[in-house]
Amino acid sequence: MVGVRALLVAAFTTMVAVSTTAADWPSRPVKIIVPFGAGGQSDIVARIIAQSFSDTFKQQFFVENQGGGGGVIASKALVRAEPDGHTLMITGMATNILAPALQKDIGFDPIGDFTHIAYIGGSPSAFVVHPSTGVKTFEDFMAWAKTVPDGIQYVSPGVGSGSGSVAEFFAARSGIQLVHIPHRGGSSAVADLVAGHVKMGSLTWSTVREHINAKTLIPIAVSSGERISDFPAIPTFKEKGYPDVVTTVWLSLSGPRGLPDDITKKLNAELNRIIQQSPLEEHLKRDAFDIQLMTPAQVTQLMKSDYEKWVPAIRQALKIK
User: Fold this and answer.
1) Least C-beta-crowded within 10 Å: which of 38, 147, 242, 269?
2) Same CATH topology for 2-122+250-317 and 124-240?
3) 124-240, what's its fold?
4) 130-159 pLDDT, tens per residue?
């Protein structure tokens, strides 16, 4: 009887502690982990969100970059964090779908070890080349690839990044040889490319858009389902005969497993509000993001469905056993 009473007291104490934490949240600065280096799409979006959340919740939200391992290092840090709403992370296609596809023993459950809070949106990836290559079209690119027996070197934001995975998936499907030169973020990758140190890149549209405008990079194709309205001359991989190379490197906001429901709902409602307003909406639209409002349950379902679609396909294409 004493044992039962002790268990009931312990359970009640835990419930009170959780509800108090949720009611008082945020009681101290909130960290938003970004799984890639500064200057890339995840980082820029996270900083806009952090400023908006700081204004709304009257507490500091700050960004901490934890690059490396295609997002695995950052994901493990989040999974180990207390589920009290003071540690969040920019998650999504790269961290929760592609990294597990490329690394089978990843050390965490990309669906169950997280509380998936809200959908931010997704930007397509683009193949781009340095002007010195003389390559101007998709057909030029494929012809060039066949003349480089050891493979074309290309930059991406990192191992396990969405854009890097698109390149590897396309290479497997098309039969061309590509050699990955991973970076720790999109900004350093595109700088290397624009400088001409490497002649090709597979990067998010947001990273390359201004360089395409300035003609310092030449676009080859994009991974969106349709052509980007502001750049109608750039073809999609789909229309060039690769209908399965259609994806956006979408982003979401997540916390550790067990995040209290009321904190999750507060964050979801606020993020859904600010993605419909400047400056975040303006930034996302400029970078061809597909903006959708989702509940936490819908984000979790998206994670599950994309995991089931992409993980087996990527492992098969890249012969990962």
Assistant:
1) 147
2) yes
3) D-Maltodextrin-Binding Protein; domain 2 (3.40.190)
4) 999 999 999 999 999 999 989 999 999 877
